[in-house]
Design goal:
The chain is mainly alpha-helical and 56 residues long. Helix content is 89%, strand content 0%.
Amino acid sequence: MKMFVNIVGFVFLTLSLTSCELIGGIFKAGVWSGVIVVVLVIALVLWLVMKLLGKK
């Protein structure tokens, strides 16, 4: 449940902040947390694309 809350919070921040503010916030939190967030976002996008392309 805590992971779900973290994901919802991240999505909210992503939609509400500009890209420069988001990048600045990620690097303030730490480089490794930024790397983890970027990897998770890329994995989510790839998963969504695979789901969309797989339904043909």
